[in-house]
Description:
The chain is of the alpha+beta class. 51% of the residues lie in helices and 18% in strands. It has a seven-stranded mixed β-sheet, with helices on both faces. Helix 5 links the parallel strand 4 and strand 5. Helix 1 runs parallel beside helix 7 and helix 2 packs antiparallel against helix 4. It is elongated. The protein starts with a helix and ends in a 12-residue tail after the last helix.
Amino acid sequence: xxxxAPKMQTISMNQGLxxxxxxxxxxxxxAHFEQRKVICNLHREHMMQIESHLLSLNEQDRYLRFGxxxxxxxxxxxxxxxxxxxxxxxxxxxxEMSLVAVAHLALARPSKFTRCAEFGVSVLPGLRxxxxxxxxxxxxxxLARNEGVSMLFIHALSENVPMLKIAKSHGAKLERxxxxxxxxxxxxxxxxxxxxxEWFLTFYGQxxxxxxxxxxxxxxxxxxxxxxxxxxxxxxxxASAWNTSVVKIDPLSGLEK
Length: 257
């Protein structure tokens, strides 16, 4: 029995060192988060912001995102039918808490294709070319991998060059069918490292979102206080001007003072 004890301790130490190595790797990545866009998991309470983001897209952008000229009613129906309990919706907020980029990772419903997932993304025109689409694709690939998905695919119009470029640069295989193109990316099995990486990114994204919301609420409160103070100042000035303009009568002489 005593001879086996050192062996058990060695195994435990090796596991601890391996875990610590993974944690250090994630901490090093976290040190660079300030230089990159922070991705947040979106939930049902973000539906209005998601809808507002998609409705702000012009006709051509809607056509490329959905594959058809989606009208406002189509977008509203799409948002209402998002399955937040199963699918993964990701977003990038700006300093004003507006969604500037949104990705939808649709996991296949129970069928023979349960190990597949589809990716779709949209970025506001003024903020394209900053790598947001690629960043959301990488994040979605990791989430899909950790969900046990082995195949991530994109169905896009062949003219959607930016989307297909992102897929191809990440190793996806492209198959073109006239005006439409399918991109397939094989994902490796999930691992302890990929799960830890997802936890770090989720924690950081949620923390960043909460901080942004608190900062925005603070500035809104400060703005309201300043408006109240300005209103008090204006009221004092009006009252002072009114008092100086009132004609005062001496009650004894009946003459103006």
